[in-house]
Prior knowledge:
With 473 residues, the chain is α/β, with parallel strands linked by helices. It has helices at 30-45, 54-70, 72-83, 87-108, 144-157, 172-183, 198-207, 220-232, 256-268, 288-301, 320-335, 367-370, 386-394, 409-418, 453-457; strands spanning 3-4, 10-15, 20-26, 115-117, 123-131, 134-138, 161-166, 191-195, 213-217, 238-241, 247-250, 280-284, 339-342, 357-360, 377-383, 401-405, 423-426, 445-446, 459-467.
Amino acid sequence: MCTVFPLGRTFPTVDPRTGEVIARVAEGDAEDINRAVAAARRAFDEGPWPRMTAYERCRVLLRFADLIEQHNDEIAALESWDGGKPLEQSAGAEVPMAARCMRYYAGWADKIHGMVVPADGPHHVQVLREPIGVAGQIIPWNFPLLMFAWKVGPALACGNAVVLKTAEQTPLSALYVASLLHEAGLPEGVLNVVPGFGPTAGAALCSHMGVDKLAFTGSTGTGKIILELAARSNLKPVTLELGGKSPFIVMDDADVDQAVELAHRAIFFNQGQCCCAGSRTFVHESVYDEFVEKSKARAQRRVVGDPFKKGVEQGPQIDGQQFKKILGYVKSGVDSGATLVTGGDRLGSRGFYVQPTVFADVEDEMKIAKEEIFGPIQSILKFRDVGEVVRRANATQYGLAAGVFTGSLDTANAVARALRVGTVWVNCYDVFDAAIPFGGYKMSGVGREKGPYSLGNYLQTKAVVAPLRDPAW
Ligand code: ADP
């Protein structure tokens, strides 16, 4: 079965609509990580999972995807309750995307091939791809279910065992779907979910000598700590999906109304809590004033409220800490001389709701243009020519994603090649199919997830070399 650790100490998980406690959840610490890793080691070293046929593994994962779909409504409700995101988005996008991701990797399970290498000399050389072992995975709170799928899908398809730590703010959906994976037929100890805190459970997982690989999604600061813990312990390889300050570039030939709508979604989606949020809206000077006016009107039309109500586009921020941090950035924007076009305050007096906020006249050196805010704050910057905007778009420590909005294919192609980012969306944004690789240049990450690229993160490569003798006949 999927082991869910531990029993004993608990911590509260909170409803961001009200700040009230939803439930108390078992709190894993270093000792629980030891037990989870031991269970995963046993499952990997002695259990049936890595020894099953790949087709059998494929079928377990396909059954799991079916179960996710059958329980769509319950999972979506947990995701919205724990994380504050509109139910329509959880039910219509996040849960179906998680099922799609599991099916995508189920399909890969029996398509992972080795090779025969034509090396020089009389040798028969095979290259085998083997599971890497016990994978430690740490996920964030902004897309808890989807991050579970991106991490667990490829790891299990390749035949590994997993210890996964959920984010302290959002433990519920992963615990629920872990029980579905059990129901789908996953053998005992193959998946171990440990809810708990970063510096205790998370750090123990990163430092553990029995863990063969780490995958992390979260902030750049925490990513650095994780890489260090991995290096200091057993040099386990690490993939990191970290922060961003992604440019969304609106060229002078763009349809302004469409560009306004897309730029709006690029920054405000998921309450602005996306690592790839289009958080620097660069607009050509010839359409700038019109763009700012229309962006203001769009932000003011944005429907903010209880995420369980129909038609709501934006729910509360995840918790009080993020809420305060976001309002601190609003103050910084005003203090540094940006024009506050709309919003800028909390909404209502209860929960963690923030008004959709638009700043114009933002300059590259301002904190709101440099640091990741992770909130519903749009910063609109002006540019004159394409070379200039590409230079400015690239002048950041991050390199996760970018959007380019233009009517010219030539401009789109040239700019896409010039941007130092892991994803460029042309005339679209936030397209996340399981088959499309995702990850960052520079301090936005190490490695790629999704598509076939994730498989390499969870496989070892073994060369088997044997002499080829002249036949005796
Ligand atoms: P945020 O600041 O947005 O919460 P983090 O990067 O701190 O983002 O959190 C993402 C995940 O990393 C969470 O699961 C969190 O518990 C975990 N985490 C935080 N600090 C550490 C740490 N020192 N070691 C391991 N994991 C950590």
